[in-house]
Amino acid sequence: MRKAKIVYKDEEAGVLTQHDNGSFIFRYHDSWMADSNKPGISLTLPKREQEFHSKFLFPFFYNMLPEGSNKQMVCKYNRIDPDDYFGLLMTTAKYDSIGAVRVIKIEEL
Question: What residue stretches are annotated with the HipA N-terminal subdomain domain (predicted)?
Fold first, then answer.
């Protein structure tokens, strides 16, 4: 299992989890849900109490990934399998991404 913090405009909004079977769950933090001024991170992941489940990486996050020669370069330089979309997402979207959302790996203790 791997987890990443989802940060919206420098505030932690929720957690994205990849299970060992490859499925994904996204859940907003309770504090994010309690603040009516905080928006959903995307139209496809609106604010709601229930977790979002998917057999594949959610399209919102998939569309944050590099493509073509940029993807090849990032994968080679960081030794990431090109089919490891979650690993690629955590590598490329932790510091700089298009839009207000960043993805930061949560280190397991």
Answer: 5-103
